[in-house]
Every structure is written in C-alpha cells, then in structure tokens.
Amino acid sequence: MVADPVPLQLAAELFPNGISRYAVGGLLVGLGTVLIYVGTGIPAGASTFLESTLSYVSDQSRFQQYVASRDWRLVFTAGIILGAFAFAATVQSGVVSSSLYEPGSTGQLYEVAGVTLWTTDVQPWRLFFGGILVGIGTRIGKGCTSGHGVCGVGSASKTSLAGVATFLTVAIGTAQVVAALGVSP
Amino acid sequence: MADRHPLFKPLVFVGGLVFGFGLGFSHMARPEVVLNFLQFDDLGLPFVMFGAAIVSGIAFALLPRIRDAAPLTGDPYERRLKPFDRNVLVGGAVFGVGWGLSGICPGAAYASLGTGNITILWALAGMFLGAYVQGYWRSQSTDNEPAFAGAD
C-alpha cells in the first residue's frame, strides 16, 4: 500500500474539506466589508444590528444610541440574508459548480421550488441558550467575529485582538467540554 | 443623518450581499462546521476570519493614502479603535461560551437563515433576548460607562 507523503496525510486530517471554500469565502466576506468601507468609511460589524433593531421597539438608552444607524444596519442584514440565499440558489443547488467548493456532509439538505436549502442538525436548545450568551457577550464585549475578528484585526486594533483571543479560547474550551459530555450534534 | 447620499443604502446592501454569499460559501453559516473547528476536527475557519481581515486590512491601510473622505458620507477614512477595558474580556468570554455552545455568531446566523436554516431562528431569538437583557440592565444602571456608539 502506497501511502500519501506525510505532509499530505496531515493536511487531509487537519483540513478534511480542503481550504479553498474557506479562503474564497473569507475573501468574499472581506470584499463585502471593503465595498462598504470604500463608499462610507464605516467598518461594518454584524452584532450592533441586534441592539440597533431593538431601538425600533424599546426606548432604553442603550438601544436609542443606535437610532442613526439602525436603518442601514437593517439593510446590511437583509443583504447578508439574501446574499446567503443567492449562494443557496446557485452553488448549494449545483447550478454553479466550482472545484473551489467542497459541499461537505453536515446538516440536512431539502428542496423548495428547485432551490436546494439547508438546515442544521444542532439541537435547538444549544442554539437558543448559546444565542442568548452571544447576544449578551458581543454587546458587552463591543463586537463579534466580524466587528472584532474581521474589521478590528484588519485594523490591528489591540482591543480587538484581545477580544478575539478571548472569545476564540473560551469557545474552543466550551465546545470541547460540551463534546466531552457527549452532547452531539 | 437624513442627508445621506442616495447610493448609501444600495452600497451597504450590495456589500451585505457579497458578505452573506461569502459566509454561505465558506460554510460559516453552518454551526456544525464552526463546531468542527472548535473541536479541532477541521481547521478551516481561520482562513475565513483572517482571510477577510487581511483583505479589509489592506483597504483600511491604503484608502487613507488615496483620498481623505468616503464619497457617500464625507466621513474621513480613519481607524476607529474601540477603547479597551474589562468589558472586552468579560463580554468576549461570555460570547465565547455562547459561540462554543451553539456554533453560531451574529453575521453567520443571518446568513444561515438565508441558506434555508429555519432552525437558526432559535439562535436569533436567543441573540435578541440576550442583547435586550444586557441593554435593559445597562440602561438602568446609573453609573453607566460613557455611551459608545462605534461601528460594532
């Protein structure tokens, strides 16, 4: 039996889905951020939307401070949802195929009107309680994976680097403990 | 700011489209794939986050040398650094527990909905609830830190 050279074996173990879908996706996420920054000077993050949208229904001062940006943040989020739908209608549905895209085998695919949609197998209680902590933590911590992780790291902000190091480390520890407790998926 | 350029929102929308397509393509909109990274089963995620950070970092570094202000807002191209304090670590840790439990973060949750993931509404409901609870609590506390209205 002829084995792959060790580096290839190792790469296949660490990156079972390759790296191209991640790298291409990351370039696009960066490109979306750059488009908005070039035109507006705003390094847009995703989690402020949670508070700015609450300002439509709550008079609390924490939310009202975002009144000036709440409309465009709604537009940004609508764009994200529709952009992901465009991905589903093209690449995920197999209408557009690319050697850079590895479809993988997570979750469940289902079809509606010729579009291949996807849904998660991760249990709702994990999503809900995890979501609550994400909502609290991103807002107290001044940013999420896009505001700190993409914009903040991109501008070499020490605050954002500290934020990213914190949430990455804690998330890895949490996911490992949850998996060790036998929770899956 | 009612006098914003008429192309302001269309540009934000197009940027969101590209951003969301990228989250779909990279599978970050799938909690399973994020959890696989956090459990060291598939180390692809840093290529997304740092790939995106490098692309935006180049723009953040170059644009101030090319022109002074953004065409649609007149805002200067400047680094908007968020002040560091204990909240960055405390909030980051709480976010980390939530991200590690659920495998989903805000932008990826919006994108996940777009790929057809109705189940992700549980996470979105949780995020709004969490954001509301902290906002309510911090609005009440009188010795509030100075309001910070940054980009994220």
Account of the 3D structure:
The complex is a heterodimer of chains A (185) and B (152). In chain A, strand 1 and strand 2 (115-119) form a beta hairpin. In chain A, 62% of the residues lie in helices and 5% in strands. In chain A, helix 7 (147-154) packs antiparallel against helix 8. Chain A has helices at residues 6-14, 20-40, 48-54, 61-64, 67-92, 124-140, 147-154, 158-180; strands spanning 108-112, 115-119. A two-stranded antiparallel sheet of chain A has the order 1-2. Chain A is mainly α and 185 residues long. Chain B has one domain. Chains A and B meet through helix 2, helix 3, helix 4, helix 5 and strand 2 of A and helix 1, helix 2, helix 3, helix 4 and helix 5 of B.
Explain briefly what this protein structure is.
Chain A has 185 residues and is mainly alpha-helical. Chain A has eight helices and two strands, in the order αααααββααα. Chain A folds into two domains: 120 residues, no CATH class; 64 residues.
